[in-house]
Amino acid sequence: MIELAASAHGSRIRLLSNLPFLAVHAGCLGVLWTGVSTVALAAAAAGYLARMFFITAFYHRYFSHRTFRAGRLVQFVMALTGTTAGQRGPIWWAAHHRHHHQHADDEPDLHSPTLRGFWMSHCGWFLTDAAQSSPERYARDWRALPELRLLDRFYWVGPALWAGGCAALGEALDHHAPQLGTGPMQMLVWGFCISTVLVYHATYCINSLAHRWGRRRFETPDKSRNSLILALMTLGEGWHNNHHRFPACARQGFRWWEIDISYYLLRALAALRIIRGLRPLPGRILEEARRADSARNGARARGAP
After folding, report:
1. φ, ψ (nearest 5 deg) of residue 20
2. Which residues pair with 276 in a beta bridge?
3. 60, 90, 282, 303: which one has the fewest Cβ atoms less than 10 Å from its Cβ?
4. Residue 289 lies in a domain
């Protein structure tokens, strides 16, 4: 059985095995040659928003926590779209995330900022030997499906298709709408490289920042926190203390003012009957959140720090 190393300390970061990750970052320097255009910026924004949703809604809320249900074909499409973000396969992602929840901010947690420091918790852990494979016992449900095992093995196909699509779009625009001032290389740099790197680091901020920066509504065993800024960056994932209090809920913004764009989009997919069975927040957890907010507001009114 493949298992995680007990600690990220001493795990080697092998640059050769992480060349694709490094190459995407280096590709961002292509802006020095390709420049920028309005359509390139729009492509980068669209690529960021779409793939952030694929990660937060599909990889995280579905494959890691099963917070809603989907048919097998839809499930495959969700897994395939998730691979386009370049964060490995759905089984790998779910297994590591489930491991994180079981050991959050304890020694086995590969990306605890309190134990590993900022850079290791942010992205260094992703590049270590300990993170190259996935712990089998945390994703046995998904390993039973051959199509998901195939996607997990050939996870690089999704990013390759996205990159190729960006270049093809740039070529088509250069040919049919030259007034837009774009082309295949510019669209590859902005639509793929820059948007992918932004998705990488916005996602990693939940590991490195959401366990150190923000407010704690619930006294969970870990150090998770809520942050509006991180929630906006990640389409709802910044309500991280909420999530650690009740991971099985499809909704991470527990109060009405806690913006959770991924949840709104999941509700739209449910209304279209593409997915079903969004798991609600239990009344007892919502009441707990209300009491915690009332206590904090009362402390503020009394001038408490």
Report:
1. -60, -45
2. 69
3. 303
4. no
> Residue 199 is part of which domain span?
16-214
Q: Tell me which DSSP letter residue 276 carries.
A: B
Binning pLDDT at 50, 70 and 90, where does residue 110 land?
confident
DSSP string, 133-170: S--GGG-HHHHT-HHHHHHHHTTTHHHHHHHHHHHHHH
User: Which phi and psi (to 5°) does residue 131 adopt?
Assistant: -100, -5
User: Domain count of the chain?
Assistant: 1
The answer to whether 238 and 211 have CB atoms below 8 angstroms apart is: no
* Long-range contact set of residues 265-273: C-beta below 8 Å, sequence gap at least 24: 265/53, 265/57, 265/235, 266/57, 266/61, 266/68, 270/68
Q: Is residue 254 part of a domain?
A: no
User: Does some domain include residue 205?
Assistant: yes
What is the identity of the amino acid at 48?
Answer: Y
In tens, the pLDDT along 184-208 reads 999 999 999 999 999 999 999 999 9
Do 84 and 49 meet the contact criterion of CB atoms below 8 Å apart? no
DSSP 192-227: IIIHHHHHHHHHHHHHHTTTTSSB-SS--SS---B-
In a domain, 172, yes or no: yes
Identify the bridge partners of residue 58 per DSSP, sorted by sequence position.
none
